[in-house]
Amino acid sequence: KDNIAKAIKKGTGELGGQNYEQVVYEGYGPNGVAFIVDCLTDNRNRTAPELRKIFERGNGQLGSTNCVAWMFESKGTFLIAADATDEETLMEVALEAGADDVITDENGFEVACEVAAFSAVKQALADKEIATLSAEIAMVPSSTIVVDDPALAARLLKLVDIFEDHDDVQKIFTNFDIPDEVLAAAQDS
User: Could you report how far apart the first and last alpha carbons of the chain are, in Å?
Assistant: First the structure.
């Protein structure tokens, strides 16, 4: 993706005179859903109005710094396929390495840890040859808004897609939770 290539070039100094900076924008989508949009931009004066317009088109509003960040906590998260290990082994390895929690569902496992323990947990999983589907430091909401209206779910998902299509956007964090049956209905509409 262009964003990854841009970040690599920035890190290696290949972009020459361009100066990129990381900027975090916060705001609200429809129904008061919180959004944190992490960007890498070479022109903050261009990116801010573009993101404001995306929020407005999605029935939302760009907010001020820390208007929604207080609802999120920075956490290390690891996703592991169900067939990569068993729950008992994963619990033992992850908790011993400093993880806070291991959540199991039909799709596999999610391991959560404090940012300070991220490297230790990642190394412990690698040492035991437990493959991860993803390993990242993410902004995890302290509470979520359950979206039970398929039309609202469709609008929120479209807003996320529009943000993801923006060249400067690196990551998006939200606090909505769409149940599977509502998600299916939203995608059909």
Answer: 28
Alpha-carbon distance of 9 to 147, in angstroms, equals 39
Structure confidence by residue, pLDDT tens digits, 9-33: 666 666 555 788 999 999 999 999 9
Token pair listed for 175: 């606090």
pTM: 0.79
pLDDT digits (tens, 9 = 90+) for 47-88: 999 999 999 999 999 999 899 999 999 999 999 999 989 999
Query: Hey, CA dihedral for 172, 173, 178, 179, is it positive or negative?
Result: positive
Residue 148 · residue 179 · CB < 8 Å: yes
Alpha helices for the chain (secondary structure H):
2-12, 44-57, 87-97, 118-127, 150-165, 180-188
Q: Which of 106, 98, 100 is nearest to 81 (CA)?
A: 106
How many whole angstroms separate alpha carbon 111 and alpha carbon 132? 10
The residue assigned the tokens 């149940």 is 179
How, if at all, do strands 99-105 and 108-114 pair? antiparallel
68 — phi, psi (to 5°)? -125, -15
